[in-house]
Structures are given as C-alpha cells and as structure tokens.
Amino acid sequence: FVHSSSLARHIRTHNEDPYSCKFCDKTFNMKYNLQIHLRTHTGEKPYSCKFCDKKFVHSSSLARHIRTHNEDPYSCKFCDKTFNMKYNLQIHLRTHTGEKPYSCKFCDKKFVHSSSL
C-alpha cells in the first residue's frame, strides 16, 4: 500500500466491524458501507434520473438505468437485435452459438441460463 491509512483501512476489513446498524444486527468494517446500508431502512434514494422520475440508492444503478433511455449500443452480429447492456447481448448470443454454460449436477443436461437449473 502506498499510504499507511490505506493499509489500516484494509486491515480493518479482516479484523473488525466497528460500524453497527441501529435498525438491524448488521455490522460493517467501513463507515461508508454502513451509510449505504442505512438507505435500505430509510428509503433514501439520492440518485435521480434526469429523463424520468426514477430514483436509486446506488450511483451505479442510476448509470445502468440511464442506458435504457439512450440508444442500444450493443448489436448482435447474427441478427438485427440491439441491447443497451453488454451482458444482455452476451446472453442473447448464446441463442446463435448454442452455448449452454450451466450444467445440472444430477444429469447431463445443460442450460443457457443459470435460472433454468
């Protein structure tokens, strides 16, 4: 670690959970994580979409949502479908490639989606 404070913060992730939620029994090793967790109890959603009235707990959730208002930048090379998330394109491509990465542990059957197991 470049800074001793970074090392101290990292060590806390292994040794202690000094921040406790006043609403439930969860504890956290970083104050920031507790602050984010508290939003599940307070309902605070500080990140607002500028295109619609949706609000989000996490900035990353807002960023993902905003892509639903924009163009679909991910195009399938096999058909004319487009997607606003790379992950959704990757899943769709399996319909063309026949890839089935999820196997049943009881039989030899394979699936495109883990939820099909």
From TrEMBL:
SMART domains: ZnF_C2H2 (SM00355). It comes from the Eukaryota. One of its GO terms (cellular component) is nucleus. The keyword Electron transport does not apply. It is found in: Nucleus. Gene3D superfamilies: Classic Zinc Finger (3.30.160.60). Keywords: DNA-binding, Metal-binding, Nucleus, Repeat, Transcription, Transcription regulation, Zinc, Zinc-finger. Residues 19-46, 47-74, 74-101 form the C2H2-type domain. GO terms for molecular function: DNA binding; DNA-binding transcription factor activity, RNA polymerase II-specific; zinc ion binding. Pfam families: zf-C2H2, zf-C2H2_15. SUPFAM superfamilies: beta-beta-alpha zinc fingers. Belongs to the krueppel C2H2-type zinc-finger protein family. This is C2H2-type domain-containing protein. It comes from Clastoptera arizonana (Arizona spittle bug).
